[in-house]
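Working notes for the structural subgroup meeting. M.R. asked for a predicted model of this chain before we commit to crystallization trials. I am recording the input and output together here so anyone reviewing the notebook later can reproduce the run.

Input as submitted:
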Amino acid sequence: MSGGGQTYLPLRVNMAGVIPVIFAVAVMQFPPTIASFFPSTQTFINQHFQYGSVQYLGIEFLLIVIFTYFYTAVQFNPVDQADNLRKNGGYIPGIRPGAPTAHYLDRVLTRLTLPGSLYLAVIAILPNLFIGLVGGNKQNFPFGGTAVLIIVGVALDTVKQIESQLQQRNYEGFLR
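Returned structure, recorded in token form:
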């Protein structure tokens, strides 16, 4: 007889990482690229897609939120997770296995994705807002929001791997 084990589902606030920021920037660069082939439209595009303008940052913010939901939906399939839980004998307390579990996971993931997408969008456009408020030059600013996200993500993963290695060797831990 074995005791009941506790597990967890790896639902993170920002499951998409920096991919939505990359998608949003790529989409925002598409109109100026196409306009460079058609000189008659360059004035209009340059007015409305000026890098760092309030309109540009607003559209980029909205695209980051949309792409975060899209990429999270592609990356995490609640039906497959509910099936895996059921096949392995796991369940979520108070939720029936199968379709109700998938619906619950989808609802929780949707609620988690909203603050994650807003956080990601704010971090991505914050350096541009700071440059605009200070009046500095973009070349003088050392790194953007995406670089900060990547640096913090790598640092957290490194600490997590070190913690895992230390626990395998029966040490108390790295951060305790």
